[in-house]
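Narrative summary of target 7.
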Amino acid sequence: MTKAVTTARPQRKARALPWTRQRPGAFGNLFYALALVLLLGSGGAGAGTPFEVNALEYPWSAIGRLNMAGRGHCSGTLVSERHVLTAAHCLYDAKRKRRYQLDELHFVAGYQRGEFPFHARVKAAAQADNFGDDSRVVYDSDWALLELSEPLGRQTGWLGILPLSPQTLERVRQSGAAVVLAGYRSDRSQVLTIDKGCAIRGFVETSRMFVHYCEPVHGDSGGPVLAFLNGEARVIGVTTISLSGPGEHYGGAIATSILTEGRDWPKATAAIKAEGFVPAFSGHPPPPGSAAAATPAATVARLLNLSAPESERGLATAIAVVERTRGLPVTGAPSVGVLGTLLESR
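Modeled conformation, tokenized:
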């Protein structure tokens, strides 16, 4: 199914959505619970056309699958060398009505069709103080930060966060930056896919959650919403729910500003400090010699409609044409910045 996104949408002012104007409480939580069922259900096709990317090249190498005791999976993002940002509801086994034990959670990065060069168990987990598993869902608190047993990010790289405020949201819109949803969606769970053109509609009440025009499905939960700004891919949100409005479908994400709002989560903040996590606002690519490539050459080539046998010189020439056309410094290199430029225009 192809989703139409008009160029006018990104220019809308941030505002509360119609269904969030109700008093916070039972209605809001009930709505969120129903939306959560949509996301965790059988997993129909999303509103956009998923685009497969190479999970063994940065920035995609920092995104992985969180496998839960062989009973399902979510997505998650390395935001430091050993910390994964995901959704809190991914830590709860709805069928058995209990939280997963830490040793039942396994994070794998670079996952493609059953193979993964990077993996680690979860050592510790912190989540919002007021998130209540399945029975007391708080729609804007569905986030968790996991500490891994191994520093996978030293090999996969990690992504920086961009705390999303109303002012930052306007900056993202005005720049025309590409906004992308990424994850291991249930209908293509063996590969990492992205949904392009996720124009942001606005914030939901507290500014801890925002809504965009891509529709996530089961498996996308916990995965990132990325904004490509200033040559970097930065995490602006954590995928949590699928929403329905009058005649349209949306995705809901927790803004990564939650990681910088310690006053609102005293218990979670203490747990995060105990994990040794410090928010990074810039990412770090994989090092030389890693099984993960430091640049997204395969993704860039595919976006340029170049076949696999194309030479590096042919790729460099095609990139240079794009850079000249867009008035950018000409490098001919398949950088994250070039990737963002191509995603903006498609």
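The first strand starts at residue 51 and ends at 52.
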